[in-house]
Amino acid sequence: MNGFGYLRPATLQEAAEAYAAHPGARYLAGGTNLVDLVKLGVERPAFLVDVGRLSPDGIEELVEHGDPEGAFAAAQTRVDVAYRVPPLHNHPMEPHATTAYWDDDRLTVYTSSQGGTTARSALAQMFELSEDHVTVVSEHVGGGFGPKGTPRPDPVLAAMAALRTARPVTLACPRRYLPTVVGHRAPTLHRLRLGAAPDGRLTAVVHEVTTHTSRVKEFVEQAVVPARVMYATPDLRTVHRVVALDVPSPSWMRAPGESPGMYALESAVDELAEALGMDPIQLRIRNEPEHEPGTGKPFSSRHLVQCLREGARRFGWDERDPRPRPRSRREGPWLLGTGVAAATYPSSAVPATATARALPDGTFTVRINATDIGTGARTVLAQIAADTLGTSLDRVRIEIGHSDLPPAWLAGGSTGTASWGWAVHDACADLAARVAAHSGPLPAEGIDAHADTAGKADAEVPYARHAFGAHFAEAAVDTVTGETRVRRLLGVFAAGHILNSRTARSQFTGAMITGLGMALTEGSTLDPAFGDFTECDLASYHVPVNADVPAVEAHWIEEDDTHLNPMGAKGIGEIGIVGTAAAIGNAVHHATGVRCRELPLTPDRILAGLPAAG
After folding, report:
1. Helix 580-592 / helix 501-520 crossing angle, nearest 10 deg
2. 12 vs 440, residue with greater confidence
3. HSE-CB of 360 using CA atoms within 13 angstroms
């Protein structure tokens, strides 16, 4: 056993034997496929982590209340099912690209990054520079859904080449390299056990996830976290188990953890509704909790029931045949069905700094090292500034995307507006007070104000803070080819005060389309010989294109949650993907009677189930 508590068995059998002798250790079985490891068949495979410690991001790996095993065994209605989500990859339109040059001992990089402050810190450490000798510019980023959150090989290699050649160097990663070097959503294997009373009230929830990480860096797809948030139950167990393999390092991808976790949980809830003979919306409403199940904290705001009811009204859910009669709606060879799934994503904020300046000509300049990755951050921050200053939008100039600006955290985790907007709000509020107290014309250099939300944005709060939503899908399945076409997607969200309806709708619908790809087309396979991904371009890794995307609607409930930030806003960049795949899978089952528990829902998997479905 090495100093990190890992055993390195040569074979899986040795791993099983080693586990018996050292049950508290963590184990490696390099070069082995995750699915093969799970098929080992030992009661608790030696390669799995099963501990109650805190992960590096502060999320508990094991949460258990009551006697979930006993409650499940005693439940009158039980569902015990397994789901699999394959490895998934970010494919932003703009690849990872950097231009770097040196001026004596000063490094400047223009890079496609979700966070210039984070990139500057990493590059300064790598090249043994002080941070004030590194400048990172990322004013315009052509898409970033997680992989550009931290520096990848392109800024490092470009800076090394520029140092060696004493010339500016541009490096753009070809798309075929991206699956290997910029991270991926690790595959997750789920076991869901739900026990319920005859009236539909949950008596036991057990969600267990197995996933992989690499031997280079640990990253855990925290997929059981939503089960700690969603439904009231006296007996709960959620656990992550992780195996370190010789594979590329996984990393962030839009809604890490919540996206695959809610696919499995909401599919299992749909299966439970069928077993109970209940409407799936009513089952979810029946199990609405008063407090967060995992922590016992009160919710800062929770309007999931309103989302479900409003979505049902808009979608025409009442027209759905409530009886479990798959294959009852046809249009020639097409079978039609509808499905629903709930959604949740944590709402949080990270400390940030900002400055605001009032100039004699009546204009204002607001500066913060935020990043706009296509979300409309410039627009929304300008709105927050204008509202706080009591001025018109055209009098506010926003400067972002440069590491010499006041530092702020990266664009990720749906924290951008909630974090940056808080700092901008506070800086502008202070500036407004200073201008009001000033007599006479403003000085030529203007009046400045500075804000730092450290100690406020990261303060402990007694509330569980989450955004919620409800997804509805209508799917048509061709009985001849097995093709699935999603005809309608509708989402209704409760995500705090919506600051800009246009940018918000774009975020919601964009994420829903990402969920559509997760459901129907996206997935990667590992080469067992090389531990690399075989799908390395957009010809083999199929993301949705225009012809795949149906009518997509996004709406929201009016909600103002001041327990998070002064704007009452929650992050909205990721909740749109959470639950979309489950709603589509549930619609496919309603149409066909086929319950595919492995994504994506490709024609071969649908056709394999159709004969058995009658």
Report:
1. 50
2. 440
3. 6
Task: Return the pLDDT at 44.
Answer: 39
How many C-beta atoms surround the C-beta of residue 411 within 10 A? Answer: 28
Burial category of 519 from C-beta neighbours within 10 Å (exposed 0-12, middle 13-18, buried 19 and up) = buried
- Is the pLDDT at 370 greater than 70? The verdict is yes
CA torsion 543-94-512-150 (nearest 10°) is 110
Catalytic residue flag (residue 574): yes
The C-alpha atoms of residue 534 and residue 530 are separated, in whole angstroms, by 10
| Residue 445: strand, helix, or coil | coil
Q: Supply the DSSP string of 247-286, one letter for each residue.
A: SPPP---SSTTHHHHHHHHHHHHHHHHHHHT--HHHHHHH
Q: How many helices (H) and strands (E) does the chain have?
A: 14, 22
Rounded Cα distance, 293 and 566, in Å: 27
Task: Tell me the HSE value of 196 on the side-chain side, using a 13 A CA sphere.
Answer: 27
Indicate left, alpha or beta for 236 from its phi (over 0: left) and psi (-120 to 50: alpha).
Answer: beta
- What percent of the chain has a predicted confidence (pLDDT) above 90? 84
3-state helix, strand, coil in the chain (%, to 5): 30, 25, 45
- Three-state secondary structure call for residue 582: helix
Rg over CA atoms, the chain: 25
Catalytic residue among 61, 553, 574, 598: 574
What's the pLDDT tens digit per position in 282-316?
999 999 999 999 999 999 999 999 999 999 999 99
pLDDT digits (tens, 9 = 90+) for 226-252: 999 999 999 999 999 999 998 999 999
Q: What is the pLDDT of residue 562?
A: 84
CA torsion through residues 423, 424, 427, 432, sign: negative
pLDDT digits (tens, 9 = 90+) for 247-263: 999 999 999 999 999 99
CB 271 within 8 A of CB 595: yes
Alpha-carbon gap, residue 211 to 393, rounded angstroms? 47
Could you tell me which of 340, 345, 276, 275 has the C-alpha nearest to residue 313? 340
Dist. CA 567–CA 499, nearest whole Å:
8
Contacts of 458 (CB under 8 A, 6+ apart): 349, 350, 351
